[in-house]
Amino acid sequence: MIMYLLMMLTAAVVSYAATWGARALGNGLRLYRPIRSRDMHSELISKLGGLGIFAGFLVALVVSSNSFFVKDIFAHNDAPWGILAGAVVIVAVGVTDDILDIRWWIKLFGQSAAALIVAVWGVRMSVIPFIPEPVVIESELVRIVLTAGLIVTTMNAVNFIDGLDGLAAGVAAIGGVAFFLTAYWVHRNNPQTDNSDLATLLMAILVGSCIGFLLHNWFPAKIFMGDSGAMLIGLLMASAGIVATGQIGSGLYDRANGIPTIIPILLPFAVLSLPLLDFGLAVIRRTARGQSPWSADRGHLHHKLVDLGHSHRASVVMLYVWTSILAFGGVAFAVFPWQLVLTLDLAAAFIMAVVTAWPYFTKKSSRPPSEV
Length: 372
Hints:
Helix content: 55-70%
Order of helices and strands: HHHHEEHHHHHHHHHH
Number of helices: 14
Shape: globular
Radius of gyration: 21 Å
Low-confidence stretches: 255-261
Structural class: mainly alpha
Strand order of the largest sheet: 1-2
Strand content: under 5%
Number of strands: 2
């Protein structure tokens, strides 16, 4: 645990410092994008914050490869470097979009290229968790396609929710902590001699990088992560989930106090359930209008909360709480009796539903009888 926390701290410090540099670069060169009707800010702000997040990831990964205990992850394993290569590509694509506003199909092509790099040289799905037995994917082509598809979906899900100051970074940090604790617990309670794990390391580094950046991005934000940061977070989260999924065949999750084999693939979806929900609703909404799923609009969950009457900060905090309920409530099924977890999850969800909808009921009760 200590080494993982040190890598998390390393990523946080580097990310915080590098984001300062990205702010100076963006402001000095005036690399701003025009304010759009759907944007929630009123001042020109640079979107180069993804460079700070990437710097935290890069430095922490290199340091990890030469550090006690976690360096064993890199022994005879090219997966971390394949993930890094994909990260380099997606950050380059994201920065280009943040500065030049490239067409959606060009960005999708770049996302696919980065995802394929990870799938070919990094990690790939080899098992689909299923009850009662996991399904082994025999075809390498199918493995690559499924891996790339999952990564692209996750990148866009995180990108879609990046609309309020501190929202995407905070949601990723909360979900990352839930993923990190679960992955660490699994490996800490298994009989293997080597308890080091790439998924746990990726989550530790991701959480640290997001926290370091969040100190600049909290309301009122001094810099945005842009597409480069959001897509990088999605790539790392999906890669960690794929790593965990690949460990099913080893029986690791069966030996760790009887965790069901379906848990690994549910982890990334549990911790990213809010972004994935927003992404799914956006695709349905835009497709129903005859628009491209990647066309922009002002119908995301965070927009709805602000329109409902919540302040900018309150909307972010509420989405933090929802993320915590979904992420920690989801992974808790792997540790505690499902009856207890389900009861607490439903109770927490009900309370938050009331808090979320409270401005609506307040407005409705305050209207004159003729308007109600």
